[in-house]
UniProtKB/TrEMBL annotation:
The lineage of its organism: Bacteria, Bacillati, Actinomycetota, Actinomycetes, Micrococcales. SUPFAM superfamilies: Ribokinase-like (SSF53613). It comes from Myceligenerans indicum. The keyword Coiled coil does not apply. Keywords: ATP-binding, Kinase, Nucleotide-binding, Transferase. Residues 23-288 form the Carbohydrate kinase PfkB domain. This is Carbohydrate kinase PfkB domain-containing protein. Belongs to the carbohydrate kinase PfkB family.
Length: 306
């Protein structure tokens, strides 16, 4: 089973227009329950995993997000928030084939509400074994140490924990020894103090020294690297890009956890993760994944030892 804690969800909207100027009538509109945690949860659900999410949601838009996530196969446990749930907008202009992304900041979540979300997750862990994950940036109102506390308490409840975040929250979380850290190259550099000259394998080694768990570092079109401490793997998929990358990193995480939760090895997990992220980029809407395409692309992913 795969479960998420979503402390900063959103309603993600993608517009496809002719150009980014003047009055536009969108050719298509795509609304999905989003934020990084719910995006990853929906990607895993699309691939067939039983998925649950504890989500802090305000009234109005928050109800739309909850209903949408349920419709996408994610069992949602709502922790009521006092602020309206945010919206994030992506606009794809056909004339330039470029995306403009407008992301509202995470709405304030009180320490009490955030703690209630963690309490809910810990309470569900006995009936939701497998992997739990926390993904995305935390609202500024939440103490960074809350994430480390969540990792420790979920470990005590007997489940494995993955983290995909950045900044102070990431630094705090790694102190608790999550089973998996999945971050991008810039986030890894920030965490360990690397610079532009630091190679990804060096970053992997440095992060693993902090967590002693699985570490995955993504680097856009250059591929993804992973280590379990015994060796380094690199995954690459040539010949496929896509014009809608929003949510690809989240989709990557969903595919990664699906394989790991099913007992697959790290190489297989990297292959499906890479393919799921690429499949997401083919169509508008964050974490809108065709599972058949993802599994077909997974057979084309090159995973090699570094």
């Amino acid at each position: 089973m795969i479960s998420a804690i979503a402390l900063s969800p959103s309603l993600d909207v993608t517009y496809v227009v002719d150009r980014l100027a003047g009055i536009q009538r969108p050719h298509s509109i795509h609304r999905v329950p989003g934020g990084k945690a719910l995006n990853a949860a929906r990607a895993a659900a699309a691939l067939g995993a039983p998925v649950s999410a504890v989500a802090v949601l305000g009234a109005g838009v928050g109800q739309d997000v909850a209903d949408g996530a349920q419709a996408h196969g994610v069992e949602v446990h709502v922790v009521p928030g006092t602020e309206p749930t945010r919206s994030c907008v992506s606009i794809f202009a056909r004339d330039t084939e470029r995306l403009t992304e407008i992301y509202e900041r995470s709405v304030p979540v009180s320490a009490r509400t955030a703690s209630a979300a963690v309490d809910t997750a810990v309470g569900l862990a006995a009936s939701r074994p497998g992997w739990w994950f926390v993904s995305g940036g935390l609202p500024d109102s939440i103490p960074a140490g809350l994430l480390a506390d969540a990792v420790r308490r979920l470990h005590d409840a007997g489940v494995r924990v993955a983290v995909d975040t950045h900044g102070a929250a990431l630094r705090s979380a790694v102190e608790a020894g999550p089973d998996l850290v999945k971050i991008n190259r810039a986030e890894a550099q920030e965490l360990v103090g690397g610079d532009a000259g630091t190679t990804v394998p060096e970053l992997l080694t440095a992060v693993h020294a902090l967590t002693r768990g699985l570490v995955v570092v993504t680097d856009g079109a250059a591929g993804a690297w992973a280590t379990d401490g015994d060796g380094v793997l690199r995954a690459r998929l040539a010949g496929h890009t896509g014009t809608f990358p929003v949510g690809s990193g989240d989709s990557f995480l969903g595919g990664l956890l699906l394989v790991l939760d099913g007992g697959g090895d790290l190489a297989a997990a990297l292959a499906l993760a890479t393919a799921t992220g690429t499949a997401n980029a083919q169509v508008p809407g964050a974490a809108v994944v065709d599972p058949e395409l993802a599994r077909r692309l997974a057979r084309e992913v090159e995973v090699s030892a570094v």
